[in-house]
């Protein structure tokens, strides 16, 4: 059962990452006026680096049960929980507790810890 919960955390993590990436492109950068253009490009790439990292974390959470190593599972879960928890805390601080992002990120953290 804990394998399934961990894999659900991975799927949720990937979903959150994809939402983050799409909203960044359609809501944030579609309306932002950042000059010079090279700075705008850099900020977009850094934004999407988070998206890619969260997708990678989700993939690792999905794959962790198949590694057959408790040590690998431990370090994958601990690392991904730290990454998502930091993102959840930063999002909660930025949004002053309003919004969906930190709650979705927090749900991934809770699922990953439950599947640990």
What structural category arises from helix and sheet content? Answer: mainly alpha
Low-confidence stretches: none
What does the largest sheet look like? none
Assess the beta-strand content as a share of residues.
Answer: under 5%
Question: What is the strand tally?
Answer: 0
Q: Which oligomeric form is depicted?
A: single chain
H/E topology pattern: HHHH
Mean pLDDT over the residues = 94
How many discrete structural domains?
1
**What is the helix content?**
over 70%
Radius of gyration over all CA atoms, rounded: 15 Å
Global geometry? elongated
User: DSSP helix count?
Assistant: 4
**Spatial separation of the terminal alpha carbons:** 11 Å
Q: What features would you describe in this structure?
A:
- The protein is mostly helical.
- It has four helices and no strands.
- The chain has one domain (2-114).
- Helix 1 runs antiparallel to helix 4 and helix 3 runs antiparallel to helix 4.
- The chain is elongated, with a radius of gyration of 15 Å.
- Keywords: Membrane, Transmembrane, Transmembrane helix.
- The chain crosses the membrane at residues 45-63, 75-94.
Tags for this entry?
single chain, 116 residues, mainly alpha, 4 helices, membrane, transmembrane helix, transmembrane
Concise overview:
This protein has 116 residues and is mainly alpha-helical. Helix content is 81%, strand content 0%. The chain crosses the membrane at residues 45-63, 75-94.
